Structure formats: C-alpha cells, structure tokens
Amino acid sequence: MGQKVNPVAFRLGGTQNWRSRWFTTKRYQEFLKEDYFIRNFLATKLIKAGVDKIEIERSNNSLDVIIQAARPGLIIGRGGSGVEDLKKEVKSLLAKKLKKSIKMDLRLSVEEVKDAEIRAAVIGQGMAEQIEKRMPFRRVLKQTIERVSQSRDVQGVKIMLGGRLDGNEIARREWLKKGSIPSQTMRADIDYAQTTAFTTYGTIGIKVWVFKKEDLNKKKEDKKN
Q: HEC states along the chain?
C-alpha cells in the first residue's frame, strides 16, 4: 500500500514556505488553536472571494493575518470597511472559542493573487461551485484540466474527485492528469490544495496538483540572500 504525504508539507523550507510563522514553547497549544479557528472562519466566510492562502505571523503583542485572494475587492469593501468588520468578527470569534479577552493587536491585510487561474486552491473552489450547481463532474474535470494546462507557466496538472459522483450509491474516485507531476522531486514547485463540494447526495472531495515551471533566476536570488 502506497504511503501518501502532503506535497506542500513535503517541500517545506524548499519551494514552499510555512503558512504560520511563529515560535513558542509555553503557549504552543493556545497559538495553534487560534490559528486553526482563524483559518477555518476566514475560509468559510470568504469562500466567494477565491482565497488562495491565509498566512499568520506573530510577534510579542501583535497578530498579523495575510489573506491572498483572487477577488480582494469582495473582502476590502467600500473604503476598507470590510476589513474592519472582519477584524471585529475574528476577535469576537477568538474570545468566544477561547473564552477569554484578546488583548493583542490584530492586523489584517489583503493581497491580490495575480495568477489566480493556476492556483490550486482557487481551481478547487471553482470546481466545487460548479459541482454544487449539479454540472456533470466529467465535463467540469475536462474543462478545468484544459483551461489550466493552457497556461505557459504550468508543466502539469492533476485533479482527483472522490465521493458519490453524479449521485451514484457507491462512492468512487475519478481523476485526470495532463503533463508531468513529479511527486518525489523536492525541488519541483507543486501547488496542492483540497476542498469539498457539498451536494444533496453527499460530499465530494476535490484534490488539485499544479506543477509550475521552476524560476531559476528566483532560486539564484534566494541563494544569494
């Protein structure tokens, strides 16, 4: 039986960076819970904004939440009112879940994802939305594969669906692949994400792998720094 590992976790410190950047020994459990609640809430709340990543950085008395989204205008709102409302909601959520007042300074910033059409998380969310609208899963799968593979920055793409596809009683898996996906090559820049489509006949899991071209100039700059 094959042993599977998350492609992002496998490449941490190389082509992938940590999504949470902080270190502590005494308050590890507390900070881990906070990160989990924040990510869960924002991913559900901002599902229509095409969120790609939610990164969290901490210092002594501040908590920085960086949201990378395909449609940042839906988050920011008019005059930045959306960000302020989101801050209040996050603070109240943490106070409710942890049952204590949050004294640290919460800073929330939104960044636009320029190449959203080849980001695995955004691709998965788009597919989930189409499947929830009862579109045939094979059509969604083929159209998505063709659209993503047309990009010059993509060398390979693989998408897997699992669950009661088209309402069948027996759950199964279907997948398509185009190009190469080097799963064991650590220097390969592979973007991976998984999401869930909620349908009337059950949940359908979606996994997306996108193998992007290696930027040799960027690697040289990173080595110099």
A: CCCCCCHHHHCECCCECCCEECCCCCCHHHHHHHHHHHHHHHHHHCHHHCEEEEEEEECCCEEEEEEEECCCHHHHCHHHHHHHHHHHHHHHHHHHHHCCCCCCEEEEEEEECCCHHHCHHHHHHHHHHHHHCCCCHHHHHHHHHHHHHCCCCEEEEEEEEEECHHHCCCCEEEEEEEECCCCCCCCCEEEEEEEEEEECCEEEEEEEEEEECCCHHHHHHHHHC
